[in-house]
Amino acid sequence: MSRDIQLKERWEQLVKILSDQFSQGEDLDLDAIIYLIGVQELGKFHQTYKKDEKLNLMHIAICRLLEPYGYYEFEFFDSDGWPHYKVKEELPPLKAGEQSVLMKDAIVNYFLEKKLIE
């Protein structure tokens, strides 16, 4: 099976699982899944977040997702328990479609690692 087809199938499986669990079956988009990963990585699940905190959660998720690709490296947790990352390598300029594929691939790999999907 080609890598693109496998990524597409795994992505669809993941969207279904997460959508069923977090949005009563309405398909979650890429940003919503990134947000959920940020909440997962922070570990503070039953809390309401302000707009700037939501953006920070998405940033945490993106750093965590792209860490295995060599773009970010975990540095430390601050006194509030928020993880901080440093840039190891700048992301290359990507078109919107390429950026979307990179993030979907990173998300699929994250959930393969967490054993939510196979």
From TrEMBL:
<protein>
    <submittedName>
        <fullName>Uncharacterized protein</fullName>
    </submittedName>
</protein>
